[in-house]
Amino acid sequence: SMVDGAIAISEVFPMLSHKMDHLEKVEPMANSGIIGVGWSTSGGEAAALLTDKYLAADGIENVIRVLEEVEDERIGDLEFIELNACAGGCVGGVLCVENPYVAKARIQRLRKYLPVSQNHLGDGPIPPVMEWEEGLEFSNVLTLSDDLAEAMRMMVDIDRIAKEFPGLDCGACGAPTCRAFAEDVVRGNSQKTGCIFVYRRQMQQMADTLSQMGSGLGRFPKDDREQGRGPAPKNGE
């Protein structure tokens, strides 16, 4: 895995909060209204468009299903699709210190006393930070290989390797599902040990092997005299 470690925001935030309490002057970066604050929950971005032709989904499994249906052209007549991998939206993400349900209730109360919007672009140009620097390019990620026989072989390998994983779809490997990670392995983009369960299993097997080897070796002689092959000891030895 390319992940060296993980630090919980719950460990970092108290240290930052302590420092922020001692700031003499705080300059707000921006002021948000109901629309801006609503972006933190699923459907908030879509609601800001003031249209009912949108779809909002949250949770990685639901996001995958929606994308598959979009690809199969089973979803249409939409102007905007909002997809959040985190359950409930950003409020349910890893950077939320508070319980996500408590935070969502707090946001609902906050929105009640805010104006609709406090930030407007006006008639001026769109800020450069909001523009695309490069054009969008299509990436055919679903094609395993241009060779049909090779693609079929890779599909068989994906099914076989996926059975070695626990099927929890925990995402610790960086892939959304165990099957997606199996595909990464077959494509050569990752190793099976990127799954913490496979890695732990291999480490346990290695430890068991070393333990069996150690128990079978017995006690090594210190020198030839213990085996009776050395010279007879002299007087006083």
TrEMBL record:
Presence of keyword Chloroplast: no
Transmembrane segments: none
One Pfam entry name: Fe_hyd_lg_C
Annotated 4Fe-4S domain residues: 153-212
One MF annotation (Gene Ontology) recorded for this entry: 4 iron, 4 sulfur cluster binding
UniProt keyword annotation of 4Fe-4S present: yes
Region (Disordered): 212-237
Keywords: 4Fe-4S, Iron, Iron-sulfur, Metal-binding
PANTHER family tied to this protein: ION-TRANSLOCATING OXIDOREDUCTASE COMPLEX SUBUNIT B (PTHR43560)
Protein name, as recorded: Ferredoxin
